[in-house]
């Protein structure tokens, strides 16, 4: 295998630095001891992390985001697992169209989805409610839940199921004791990826959130629009930490390259 | 119940997909149809939304040069972002692919990881780096002698393109990376044994084979950039509007929902046409690669 030349390695180094720099600078500024935006050159301080405690709207938004992400990803899986099993196992008329419909939230700009949901939920009398946020998030995370469950269901060894059937298992028992445990790594990874997508979404949620149901990205965005100070960097650092935790979980359970490679295909 | 019998069963797949299908029809297709309808409704400062069928909003978008300029800016930013990600992302994917196992997976994680980190946090990072006229980026570029005067990044299209390119870069690297995985390394060796230099190999052997990957990455990056919201809103500020931020303003500040719905519908239709059209073009042009 041929190696990269020095020029290629210089390009690569600059590329990686530029990719990491914005994230790194947010995390560094979060530790500044000063009262203004600056890199922590005079030692590290946690003062801006402590300041978060004085802003209950950030704390509340964090819990909203966490609950919304966990719940909407779970509900999405309730719909996605049976759908994935059907798409993986049966060849039926309309199968391709169904799969395309289920993946379509990836193709529709989130700003359009936000507007459509705002219009829909307002006329349904659910405007600004947590229930509306859950339903909307179920739709946008559905493709991620479906994709990973589908991959697991397609790659599953069916002979184990057949053995269970021959031993008299059927219906619910078959699903709960045999099928579900076999596809569980895919299901859990699907949940984690769906959670991250829900936890990070701004563009759609900004249309639906009302005071009281604002998620963390929405709260941060509205705050940044007024002014940028070290407080918002320490909040961002916390968000990055949560995402990193989910990322590491995802990597352990499933392999991050597989998750992301699946995601990259979506545009085709 | 054997597997064969199971696959002949025609009712089971619909029973399994039924709940999801109903969810999607009820909570996705209906709201989208309602939005298209909304774009034909009337609106007034005092009377609010009137459910009539008129072309007022569409006429306004078609005749007022403000909207033409805004859509042109949106697509100009998306095109420049796409070019930047292709020019930098494709070589990086190639370099990444030539690395040895351990480093390869480490750097792949470093480059693709940001994909899952909040766009607000990533854009905030750029706002900090740009930070007025004496931000870190300008200081670095000036001390390196690349520029003599600071470039204004905040509240400019330049800044939007740089920050958007960073946000979208993982999609391009991923797409080219996938194309490189399909490539047979022996072809490169064969070219080398026939006396081709490294530049010739890249131009004649690698480029034509990864082009479909670059193009499908470009489609993803373009459509996501053209509909991006967070980055243009934070870097562009309140005056430099793109389609997504304008629609947001119409909905949540001006409260002219029908006009906002028309902008969103136009964006959706334009993007679907561009994506479907270029997909078809690529598949025809590179049919042999996809086979």
TrEMBL record, chain A:
Source species of the chain: Bradyrhizobium campsiandrae
Residue ranges crossing the lipid bilayer per the database entry: 7-31, 58-85, 97-118, 130-153, 174-196, 231-250
The keyword Transport belongs to this UniProt entry's keyword annotation: yes
SUPFAM superfamilies: MetI-like
Keywords of the record: Cell inner membrane, Cell membrane, Membrane, Transmembrane, Transmembrane helix, Transport
Gene3D superfamilies (UniProt xref): MetI-like (1.10.3720.10)
Main location as per UniProt: membrane
Protein family (similarity comment): Belongs to the binding-protein-dependent transport system permease family.
Domain of life: Bacteria
Annotated protein name in UniProt: ABC transporter permease
Membrane-related topology note: Multi-pass membrane protein
PANTHER family: INNER MEMBRANE ABC TRANSPORTER PERMEASE PROTEIN YDCV (PTHR43357)
Domain ABC transmembrane type-1, residue spans: 62-250
Subcellular location: Cell inner membrane; Cell membrane
UniProtKB/TrEMBL annotation, chain B:
Key word Ribonucleoprotein present: no
Keyword annotations of the record: Cell membrane, Membrane, Transmembrane, Transmembrane helix, Transport
Transmembrane segments: 12-34, 75-94, 106-129, 160-180, 213-235, 255-282
Membrane topology annotation: Multi-pass membrane protein
Location(s) in or outside the cell: Cell membrane
PROSITE patterns: ABC_TM1
The keyword Transport appears for this protein: yes
Domain ABC transmembrane type-1: 71-278
InterPro entries given in the database record: MetI-like (IPR000515), MetI-like_sf (IPR035906)
Pfam families: BPD_transp_1 (PF00528)
Sequence similarity: Belongs to the binding-protein-dependent transport system permease family. CysTW subfamily.
Name this protein carries in UniProt: ABC transporter permease
Organism field: Bradyrhizobium campsiandrae
Higher taxonomy: Bacteria, Pseudomonadati, Pseudomonadota, Alphaproteobacteria, Hyphomicrobiales
